[in-house]
Write a structure and sequence with these properties.
Elements (H helix, E strand, L loop, with lengths): L1 H14 L45 E2 L2 E2 L20 H7 L1 H7 L8 E6 L5 H6 L7 E6 L2 H22 L9 H8 L31 E5 L2 H8 L5 E7 L17 H10 E11 L2 H13 L3 E3 L2 H4 L5 H6 L2 H8 L5 E7 L7
Helix pairs in contact: 2-3
Length: 343
């Protein structure tokens, strides 16, 4: 019996991390954002402890100050403990390794926010493209948040295991995505969905998925509690709930009130990405963005050079569903501009 237990334990260790299965995390799409759901949120952005989500970039807060202790529950992203001080070794091991080594020198902060991130397809696709940029997926549905965070933990585990192999292969993420720009409206082939769906489990990617995380939040109530003025450089609102009924329009994620909050947390030059398959919602969103004085539309020609665009169009579960059904996708991107009033 003891021998069998040891064999089972060894087999379990050899299996390593496992990706969660979506079928166990399904939840209805519609949530009343006006309900008083008990959520954990900081009084102000300085009181948010990001070390729980990004242990490779932050150390736990203790009475408002950062301590030298690391989160022992999770392994840090590829560290430079054994090769400290070598810039060359850090570059070989990936950007996250460099960020770990310079944790006390360069303050990190979240710069990308995916509002209503769903199952996290966008974050997983963007993570290797911007390996030194912290991104957070914000979702009100608890099952989806649990799924995405477990998915991220598993991907980090796969990457940590690959780092121990001397012959592990690196994937050229940017070249792969640049090829997809030429056919944005076409469904991805099965072998092309690897980065967009499950993430890389057999090849190394820059950042090793240490730069993404998921959190449960009602963005229409608590967004300024998490982000300082001008903190975000990109915000994504992809395939949002259309709230078709007129009496439900006040719950739409884009409104004059919400745009004021988005403008507050976004830096000048930052970009907000909006995509939907509902023409009425697209018209509504564009009308509100055009009328708001702190955002200006970005031309299609300029967007062709944006590496995030293929991910925005192709990487989400809803985006793939629309492509499979040969539906239409409506994309609009707006840049945060200086306040004309000088405030």
């Amino acid at each position: 019996m003891a021998g069998e237990d040891n064999d089972n334990a060894t087999a379990s260790q050899q299996q390593g991390p496992k990706l969660p299965q979506k079928k166990f995390f399904r939840q209805r799409a519609h949530v009343n954002i006006f309900n008083d759901v008990p959520l954990d949120y900081p009084v102000n952005p300085d009181q948010e402890d990001w070390s729980k989500l990004y242990p490779a970039y932050f150390r736990p807060l203790t009475e408002g100050t950062q301590t030298a202790a690391s989160d022992a529950k999770r392994p840090l992203s590829p560290s430079a403990v054994d090769e400290a001080g070598s810039d060359e070794s850090l570059s070989k091991r990936g950007p996250a390794a460099a960020s770990t080594a310079t944790i006390d020198k360069v303050p990190a902060q979240v710069e990308f926010a995916d509002i209503g991130c769903g199952y996290g397809g966008l974050l997983v696709a963007l993570a290797p493209l911007y390996p030194n940029t912290l991104m957070v997926g914000m979702e009100i549905r608890v099952k989806l948040v649990d799924y995405l965070q477990q998915r991220i933990e598993a991907l980090r585990g796969f990457q940590h295991g690959l780092l121990l192999k001397k012959d592990a292969e690196w994937v050229d993420v940017r070249s792969k995505l640049m090829q997809e720009i030429e056919a944005l409206d076409k469904p991805l082939a099965k072998d092309e969905e690897e980065l967009h769906d499950n993430g890389e489990t057999i090849r190394l990617v820059p950042g090793h998925y240490e730069n993404i995380a998921a959190m449960r939040i009602n963005c229409q109530k608590y967004l300024p509690n998490f982000f300082k003025k001008g903190q975000l450089s990109k915000m994504f609102i992809l395939f949002a709930d259309p709230h078709f009924k007129r009496r439900k329009h006040k719950a739409r994620i884009i409104s004059t009130t919400m745009l004021a909050e988005y403008a507050y947390v976004m830096r000048v030059g930052g970009i907000i990405y909006v995509i939907t398959d509902v023409k009425d919602l697209f018209t509504w969103s564009v009308a509100h963005l055009d009328a708001f004085p702190l955002f200006e539309s970005i031309s299609e020609e300029e967007l062709m050079f944006d590496p995030a665009i293929p991910c925005v169009i192709n990487s989400t579960e809803e985006g793939k569903k629309v492509a499979r059904n040969k539906g239409s996708k409506y994309l609009a991107c707006y840049r945060r501009i200086e306040d004309p009033a000088g405030n």
